[in-house]
Structures are given as C-alpha cells and as structure tokens.
Amino acid sequence: MPELRKDIITREWVIVAKERARRPHEFKRQQLVRPELLRHDPRCPFCPGNEAMTPPEVMAYRGHGSAADSEGWRVRVTANKFAALNQKAEICREDYHIYDRMQAAGAHEVVIETPLHNVSPARMDVRDLEHVIWAYIDRYNSLKQDPRIRYILIFRNHGELAGCSLAHPHSQIVATPVIPQKMFNKVRGLAQYREYREKCAYCDILSVELELGERLVSQNGSFVVLCPFASRSPFETWIVPRAHTASFARMNRFEVMELAEALKETLMRLDRCLDDPPYNYQLITAPIDGGRYDDFHWYLEILPRLTTPAGLEMGTSIYINVTPPEDAAKYLREALEGQPAAASPPGQPSGLEAEAAR
Amino acid sequence: MPELRKDIITREWVIVAKERARRPHEFKRQQLVRPELLRHDPRCPFCPGNEAMTPPEVMAYRGHGSAADSEGWRVRVTANKFAALNQKAEICREDYHIYDRMQAAGAHEVVIETPLHNVSPARMDVRDLEHVIWAYIDRYNSLKQDPRIRYILIFRNHGELAGCSLAHPHSQIVATPVIPQKMFNKVRGLAQYREYREKCAYCDILSVELELGERLVSQNGSFVVLCPFASRSPFETWIVPRAHTASFARMNRFEVMELAEALKETLMRLDRCLDDPPYNYQLITAPIDGGRYDDFHWYLEILPRLTTPAGLEMGTSIYINVTPPEDAAKYLREALEGQPAAASPPGQPSGLEAEAAR
Q1: Bridge-partner residues for A78, per DSSP?
Q2: What are the chain A neighbours of B228 within 8 Å (beta carbons)?
Q3: CA-CA distance, B243 to B13, in Å (whole number)?
Q4: Using CA atoms, how far apart are residues B90 and B156, in angstroms rounded to an integer?
Q5: Which run of H or E residues covers position B219?
Q6: Nearest residue on chain B to A310, alpha-carbon basis
Q7: A218 vs A156, A224, A272, A278, CA distance in Å?
Q8: Which of B312, B317, B321 would you mutate first to test chain A, the one with the most A CBs within 10 A?
Q9: From the candidates A12, A96, A100, A103, which should be mutated to test the interface with B, based on the most B CB atoms within 10 A?
Q10: Which residues contact B82 (CB under 8 A, 6 or more apart)?
Q11: CB-based contact (8 Å) between A210 and chain B?
C-alpha cells in the first residue's frame, strides 16, 4: 500500500508508491538521445578561447601569468549574461496598490567548472571538483559582504530536463535581497523541532539513519550521504555534514576535500544507476540577513529529474515518489561495487594550481 | 530591469524578467510534435466500449437505460487504476523513530470528461464542460462525507510536459487524510492579511485588478479571469469567483454555467496564443477537516508548463517568469478578437442529458 511520509522540518508530505515502485532501468528508457560532447566546442561561450563571449570574469583560478578574460583558467566565474538579478540595482521596496514589489537587486553568476567541455563533476578529477567548491566558497564570502543580499543559493542544473541550456559544465549562484519563503519555512521547522526536542533535526536524522542504515548511501569522515525518508523524487540524495554548522562556507580545507570526494562519488553512483540522469543540486545553507541561525544545519541536496510534477504537485506540493528511498539507497550503494574508488590516487598532480593559495 | 514580486498570500517571491520577455510564438517552437488524435481510439481505456479496461465506475452521467460500466455515458468517474491513495486503508498515523508516516488512505479518481477521444475542454461544447464541473461537485460532496478525508484537490494535466500520460480528456481527484502544507500556508496568509486589513486578500485582488485592468483577461457575471501579479509561470491565469466563498462546491447552477463558459473561453485563449500548450489546472478550495474556513476564497488556477523549473526554483521556490503577466493578459485579451463567442448558442441541444436532474 502507498505510504504518506512527512518531512519533519518543512512538514511537506510525500506519497511513496511502493506498489508501482520503479527500478533504475525504467527511468533510463525515458532519457532523450544525447549527442556525444567534444572536449572543446568552438561555439561554446564557456570554452577556453571564447572568454569574450561572456561578461567579464568576477573571479578565476588561473595559472600564473595568464590575464583576466583570457585562456589559462581552471575555474572561471562571470555574471550570467541573462542575469535574473541586477548587480547595480538599489534596494527600494515599493508598495503598488495592495502588492509588494522591488527591483530585482542582487547577483546572478555562472561558475564555469572546468575548461573541458565534456567533463561533468561525476567524471571530473576530484581535485578539480575541490576547486569548484572553493570557488563557491570564495564567491559566497564575497557576495555576503554586499549589504543588499539576504540569501545566496548555489545550484547546478544538469541535463536539458533539469533546465540546463548550455552543455559546458557550470553551476550558478543567485544572491537575493529577500529570504525565500521556503527558507523561512525551513528555519521555522528547525526551530519548532528544537523547541520540542532540544536538538537539531538534521543531527537527529543523521544519528537515526546511521543506526538504521537502510537509507544510507555512503559516508566519510565529515559527510553522510543518504536518501531522505520523505524523498520527493526517485533517487533524491542528500550530502549532510556530520558537524552541526549553519553555513557551508565555514568548511575547512579537509572538509572541502571530503565534500568533493562525496559529491563526485555520489554523482558517479547516480550516473551508473541511471545513465547520466538530469538533476539539480542545491547547497541549502542559512540566510545571511544578519540574524542568528545557529539552529541551521547546511547540506547539499541532489534532486534527479526523472518524473514530471503534475497538477497534484503544483496544487498541493505533495509529491508522488515511485521509488522508495530505501530501494534507491540500495541501488546507489551497489552501484560502485567492485569499482575502483572515486578519489584520485594520493599525490596525483592537479594540473594548474589554484590562484588562491590556502 | 527584472522585478521581484511577492504573492501577498503565500509570501512566495517571483522574479519577473522583463528584459528577456518572451512572446507567445517563442514558446510555440518548444512544443513537441503531437500526433493527430482520432475521435475514438480502440486501444484507449477511456474510450466508450473499453469500460472493462478501467476499475468499476464510481459515478457516471448516463443516458436512461444504459448499464454501469457500459457505453452510453457522458461523463464517467472511476478509481485511478494506479491509485496513489487507497480507498480502503485505515487512518493510522505511526511514529517511526523521529519520523511520521501513515498508510496513504484516501481516494484517487479519474474523471473521464467526454466519450470523444480528441475533444479537450478548449474545444468542448460548453454544456458538456458544465457536466464535467457538476461531476467535480458531485464527487467532492461525496468524498467529503468520508471522515478520513481532510483535503480534496481536483486537477487536470494536459499534455505530456504537464505530466499527462493518457491523451483522452480526463481530470483527476485526489482526497488526502492530511492538509497539504501548501494549503496551511495559504490559510495562514489569508488570516494574516485579514487580521491586518480586515478584508479578504482575494476580494481585494479582484477590486484592484478590475480597477487597473492591465492584468485582466475577461469577466462575466460571476467570475473574473486574470493573470496574477506574482505569476510563477508565463501565462499563469486564475479564474476567481466574484463572490467570497470558501468552497467551490457551493456554486449554484448559474455559477456553474458561467464557470464552464469562463474556463472554456480561457483555455481557448491559451490555445490560440500558444498552440495547445501543456498545462495543469487546479481547483484551489478550502480544507475539509471540520475547521472553519470562512476566510477562504476558492479559485481555479491554470499553470501553463512552458519553461522548466531548475535549481533556483527547486532550492528556493522563487520562480523566474519570462513573460510579465501584463503582457500575457494583453495577448490573452487579444486572442479571441474578431472570433465568435465561446459559449454555445442558446437553446442548442446538449446531446445526452445528465442523469442527475437539478
């Protein structure tokens, strides 16, 4: 019989349809035909040599001596050419009859993750992925200084069905002058949980999941990878830090390394199970409006886009999930059995050195 | 410059991207190739003659003398063959470690709107659409008697990109034993608005929109059709009753007639503008858990599915809308200019008579 499950933080319900449970190969058939990508595409605005096709870079990790907006970078961050938020706009909240509106002040940036057109994070050298995460942290810390900004979301769209329009590996950063309602709900849910149980809900989730094991995918010293109890979509996967920390930007060098390992390995597992599925990943972290968010526990959420949300999801935000998270976790655990470890061998040279020495 | 707009009830923000505003023909190009449908498809489980391919009907409007689960119906309602909620399950909320789960007790039904395989509501005789709405009301009133049920959502998925898997025109009814969090948020938002302004937010929206006119699509005696100020998607359209009423099921015969007219006409406008776009429509109505919801104001929401929600929407539920609602409303207003009226000529025979005489 199908089961209703509640997200204990957001209080959103999910219907887990066990009877019509779908296995990984049933999602593969739905995929669109994908063309083979080249290492370099001369028409791609994110490929080296085409730096003039993007807005000027706001940051890059570059080899010594290479000039801004030229080749020689490892990770490059620019404003989004079609920015949804404006770097120069003033905050000016305006009443318009009964409504509330304001200029979309903020920032909308693109993190070009690698010079290689065809190497997504699942296939990237793990040390290169570390640099991507450092770029997230550097941009986050820089944007945080802007007094107009109250929330920063870092996310990645992979595949056309996940809203990705350019194949070259990239993530996006959106900094908004408002706290999204969804984050308010999360903050409120965490506070209510803490008021009742005097503990952090995500810390509790970690200890329950580590004890039960059935929704566990993998773990390392700093992170636990799991399919959440109330997964909204088949193969939804969270990478949760063991340490209770409000902001992902407080990671130390070792934690960044372990996040890169966990992220690469998890994306590889999804890739093996589902044959390069479309997905979004989001870094869910505390608001930065100056409030205290000690209750917050950041995590990275990966949402494969395998089914189409329809009227029920639009009308109620109750999602129907056709793969129970216990099944998904089992498939993901088994995906790399007998495979070499995801991390690079120790001491492997990482190519270009990041500009920022840490 | 792009603009942030807030839904005054849910407090969700939307980014209206005026600069890259997209016009109707730019969405048409994205459509998939659609095969021409026949009037009758012998393999379709919803076509007359194939009644045995569905679960037994729970209700039908039939010509006199025709037997249940045989031909001769005008509107037919059955359980969903792959029901996400179970008609027979007990309510039994269960603590599972820190989590909350229960059997998915409730109902999941399919409203087969017409015997004709290829006649969607935009092209249906308006009197046939009235019968569909009466079927919604009848099923709603019947399911409401079930003490397990706390919310009923009636919705329609149109087109593959909107999650529709069977082409034969049909709607769905989902009755849940929990109030969706999204409805709680709406109820809370309405109450907060009323506390502050001592009025209903939707009544206020109607009077502002009727005064301004720029987001107005059409109106009749009982309903106002508009593109909401904080539209989440291009061409989002609401059909809002002028009368402040919590439940759509309290409509009288005249209001049902006018809703059918407004709905058919609005779907025709969308069809003309966007060439049969995929969409979901949902009847947003008050919960039925026994509480008082006098503050609620029901409406029908049509969400065309023209763009793909990506990481930003998933992470924050802030939607980027690339067609300002003022533009969308203008396109929709102009869509039927010089066209014959949508309603049937008075006195046109409606074919089969509904079984339930009113």
Answers
A1: A57, A110
A2: none
A3: 27
A4: 27
A5: strand B216-219
A6: B163
A7: 22, 6, 15, 21
A8: B312
A9: A100
A10: A17, A20
A11: no
Contact assignment for A312 to B174 by CB distance below 8 Å: yes
Which two three-digit tokens encode residue B120? 């969607």
Q: What is the pLDDT of residues A123-182, one digit of tens each?
A: 999 999 999 999 999 999 999 999 999 999 999 999 999 999 999 999 999 999 999 999
Whether the pLDDT of residue B94 is over 90: the answer is no
Query: Cα distance from B189 to chain A (closest Cα, Å)?
Result: 12
Q: Which of A177, A257, A271, A247 is CA-nearest to residue A220?
A: A257
Tell me the one-letter amino acid at A302: I
Q: Where is A272: in which H helix or E strand? A: helix A253-274
pLDDT at A94: 79
pLDDT in tens, B225-276: 999 999 999 999 999 999 999 999 999 999 999 999 999 999 999 999 999 9
Residues 92-121 on B with a CB inside 8 Å of A are 97-104
Tokens of A120: 């997504």
Chain B residues whose beta carbon lies within 8 Å of the beta carbon of residue A1: 86, 89, 103-104
**Which regions in chain A score pLDDT beneath 70?**
29-34, 339-358
For B121, residues 6+ apart whose C-beta sits below 8 A from its C-beta are: B113, B129, B132, B156, B169, B263, B264, B267
The encoded tokens of residue A118 equal 């065809």
pTM attached to this predicted model: 0.93
Chain A to chain B, count of Cβ pairs less than 8 Å apart? Answer: 226
Residues B265, A14: Cα–Cα separation, whole Å: 34
Best to test chain A binding among B13, B202, B248 (most A CBs inside 10 Å) = B13
Given a contact cutoff of 8 angstroms between Cβ atoms, the answer to whether A246 and A187 are in contact is no
pLDDT score at A34? 67
Question: What pLDDT score was predicted for residue A345?
Answer: 41
